[in-house]
Design goal:
Strands 3-4-5-7-6 form a five-stranded antiparallel beta sheet, with helices on one face. Strands 8-17-16-13-14 form a five-stranded antiparallel beta sheet. A five-stranded antiparallel beta sheet has the order 9-10-11-12-15, covered by helices on one side. It is flat, with a radius of gyration of 43 Å. Strand 13 and strand 14 form a beta hairpin. The protein contains 25 helices and 17 strands. Helix content is about 55%, strand content about 15%. By secondary structure, it is α+β, with helices and mostly antiparallel strands. Helix 1 runs antiparallel to helix 2, helix 19 packs antiparallel against helix 23 and helix 22 packs antiparallel against helix 23.
């Protein structure tokens, strides 16, 4: 069944992802609570405790409350019931920061001022209060405030959810908290740091391992200066594992263990190093128990291909410059027109002009235009429908309000002259507006077309110098050395060859022989080349033989006489089959002029490389400027890629077309306005896929006199019988003519048929 290309936005695994989406917020808040607890527990240099407040200031909106709760719990448990004055100040500061974040969500400065201000205010109260904290408390709380504000600001800039500075800061708080916890000879901080560093080395992330080692080592030393030798040993171990065996599990374990022993023994005497080595060994054992998938090397990201700058030739660059100039010209004309003041002449101008030309020198001017102003103005306004209907005014047409005029004939003449001038100015303004719109639309359409051609010239494909040399040598052996020879692969992997020679004529048999020989040299099967001649040069364009070929057929019947307003163009370009059907408005010779003009211009533009949309815009301008009379024609176009079967349909005011795919027929296309009516084109585009044996049928509205039902049935019958396109078109036209005669509604009837066949047939 024929399928229109479209994007399906539904995710096939949405149901499976929903539980994970529900659990994710709980995991984030639990992680924030744990990080806050460790941050509230951590103490630097025996006095500073900035991590709890800093994490409260820096965590995201959905988890700062959980982090604050963990920090408060860590502060309370750290003193085991005997809270210091510094801890009490920090408890107040964390509460103030949470309140500020609830009142001003998403803003860092109010929360930082509230938290640090509460910390400083509490320190002042306790320092000079009866408890007598003294200057030491002020300095300690001031340092906590500064460090917490800096930590919160860094976490806002670098969220801890992603690898980077934020994650390292949270790891530093956890290392400082665990570094002060000992279970006999085992130091939890050293063990956890060793396990994480070794895991990073096994995963082949040496940079992350070294960065983590540096930050957590500094945090361990700040938490307990006696852990300095352990930090040095872990640094040596991380350097050995990251540099000597990154991404190799067994070798990384060995290198890490050796580096750790060497580092600790170099700093500590052997007798004092036992507890540190025991802690590091516990970390290695914990890492060894992790699942293998957690220690598997992370695949290195594929190196992004360097962005290739467009290889614009000189011609492409000049075309692009011309396109930009034309587009800028159209925009400038429209901008200038919009900026200029516009005269808004209404019927009041006719009244004023009549007054100035006749009544201004009349002896009754004071009476008519001052004493009886309202009645005079009503009488003049009553002239408008008479003038618009008849185009002129007679004395018998004067309303009663103007019966007192002493110069009725002169009044009628002045009003007629003023109205004629008013109408001519109005028509001139409308005509100028239409010309300006057509001019700017033409500039814009040509600019877009040149831009497309420039882009095509700027992407010549991947060159194949070896094949280019072989083809050039072949033409040189024929006695016609090429001026330029290029063999390239396009984006779809198809080989193309372009050979430019001095002006030369070729017979059809010679072109076929050239295609065979060039195909042999390029190891491809080529179609006879397209020949382009210009200014003393001939260019041969060789393209691979497509997988499909198009067979055309059409039939037509005029409504009256022998002249039909419908026009058909059917042809094949090197890569696509094109079929155009244009239906001129009305019937007879005028409709035939519009239909044939639209079809011929569209065909020429498509052969030159223009897209359907750009061709429609240019044809729209041509029809609008063709004559003073209203001109219009429908545009029905289908372009089929003979390599892939991809068909692009474009319709502007055309009747629905029909596609037969797999023996089933279906209509395509909706109602829209013809071209040549409006300043722009209201067209519709659609992309479908066709295969060998499928039909594409374009019809004029005369065939649909009895609807689309019978057409669909006839198409399916003809497709089942494999009728040739010419026979199918005649059947449709003859049947439609019989039905139209029965209904008494004759119209031009045309059917254009395209059938795809395999090139092997």
């Amino acid at each position: 069944m024929l399928k229109v290309l479209k994007t399906d936005v539904s995710h096939p695994f949405a149901a499976a992802l929903m539980p994970r989406a529900a659990v994710r917020p709980a995991l984030r808040q639990g992680s924030a609570f744990l990080a806050g607890f460790l941050g509230g527990w951590a103490v630097l240099y025996g006095a500073l405790m900035p991590f709890g407040l800093g994490l409260t200031l820096g965590f995201a909106e959905d988890c700062f409350a959980a982090g604050a709760a963990g920090a408060l719990l860590g502060l309370l448990l750290h003193g085991f019931g005997a809270l210091s004055l510094d801890s009490l100040c920090l408890l107040c500061a964390v509460g103030a920061a949470v309140a500020a974040r609830w009142l001003w969500p998403g803003r860092f400065r109010p929360a930082a001022l509230a938290g640090c201000g509460a910390l400083g205010l509490g320190a002042v109260c306790f320092a000079f209060g009866p408890t007598g904290g003294g200057v030491d408390l002020l300095l300690t709380c001031g340092a906590d405030a500064l460090l917490a504000a800096a930590l919160g600001f860094a976490l806002r800039r670098f969220p801890p959810e992603t690898p980077g500075v934020g994650m390292l800061l949270v790891a530093a708080g956890a290392a400082a908290a665990l570094g002060s916890v000992s279970l006999g000879l085992l130091c939890l901080g050293v063990a956890v740091c060793a396990a994480v560093e070794l895991a990073l080395c096994c995963r082949g992330q040496p940079t992350a391992a070294l960065a983590y080692c540096a930050v957590t080592g500094a945090a361990l030393c700040a938490a307990d200066p006696s852990l300095g030798p352990a930090a040095a040993g872990l640094s040596c171990a991380s350097a050995a594992g990251a540099l000597l065996a990154p991404g190799r599990r067994i070798e990384a374990f060995a290198a890490y263990a050796g580096g750790c022993v060497a580092g600790v023994l170099c700093v500590q005497p052997p007798g004092n190093a036992f507890s540190l080595l025991l802690s590091a060994g516990a970390g290695l054992a914990a890492a060894a128990l992790l699942p293998k998938d957690w220690l598997a090397p992370v695949p290195a990201p594929e190196a992004a291909a360097p962005e290739e700058r467009p290889r614009f030739s000189a011609a492409a660059t000049r075309l692009e410059a011309v396109a930009e100039s034309l587009s800028s010209l159209a925009e400038t004309v429209n901008e200038v027109y919009d900026a200029l003041p516009h005269r808004c002449e209404s019927f009041r101008w006719v009244i004023d002009n009549t007054h100035d030309s006749l009544c201004f020198n009349c002896g009754r001017r004071e009476c008519c235009w001052k004493q009886e102003y309202a009645a005079t103005l009503d009488g003049m306004n009553a002239l408008r429908p008479i003038l618009e209907q008849n185009g002129h005014l007679e004395t018998s047409d004067l309303p009663g309000a103007l019966s007192r005029c002493i110069h009725p004939a002169a009044l009628c003449a002045a009003a007629n002259k003023s109205f004629a001038l008013y109408r001519s100015r109005k028509e001139a303004r409308v005509h100028a507006e239409a010309m300006r719109t057509a001019l700017t639309e033409q500039y814009s359409a040509v600019a877009d077309a040149l831009g497309v051609l420039s882009e095509q010239l700027g992407r010549p494909g991947n060159p194949e110098p070896y094949k280019s040399g072989r083809v050039a040598d072949f033409f040189s052996s024929l006695g016609t050395p090429p001026l330029e020879c290029a063999v390239s692969l396009d984006d779809l992997g198809r080989t193309r060859a372009a050979v430019t020679l001095p002006r030369t004529r070729f017979a059809a048999a010679e072109l076929s022989a050239l295609a065979q020989e060039v195909g042999r040299l390029c190891r491809r099967t080529f179609e006879p080349p397209q020949v382009l001649s210009c200014k003393g040069m001939t260019t041969l364009l060789f393209s691979e033989k497509p997988a499909l070929r198009a067979v055309f057929g059409f039939a037509a019947s005029a409504a009256r006489g022998t002249i039909s307003g419908d026009a058909v163009q059917q042809f094949c370009s090197p890569a696509a089959a094109q079929m155009i059907l244009c239906d001129g408005m009305g019937t007879g010779r005028p409709a035939a002029v519009d239909g044939n003009l639209a079809a011929e211009l569209t065909a020429r533009l498509l052969k030159a490389g223009f897209t359907a949309e750009l061709a429609a815009r240019l044809v729209n301008v041509a029809l609008a400027l063709k004559s003073d009379e209203e001109s219009g024609a429908t545009l029905d176009l289908i372009s089929v890629d003979l390599y892939t079967g991809t068909a692009r349909l474009f319709k502007a005011g055309a009747a629905p077309g029909f596609l037969v795919h797999g023996g089933r027929a279906r209509p395509v296309g909706d109602a829209s306005l013809p071209i040549g009516i409006l300043g722009g084109v209201n067209g519709q585009s659609r992309v479908v896929h066709l295969a060998a044996g499928d039909y594409a049928v374009l019809v004029s509205d005369g065939i649909l006199v009895d609807g689309t039902g019978w057409v669909l049935k006839q198409l399916e019958l003809s497709a089942a019988a494999a009728d040739p396109p010419e026979q199918l078109a005649k059947t449709l036209v003859e049947t439609a003519r019989t039905r139209a005669e029965a209904t008494g509604r004759p119209d031009d009837i045309t059917a254009a048929v395209l059938r795809l066949e395999s090139c092997g047939r």
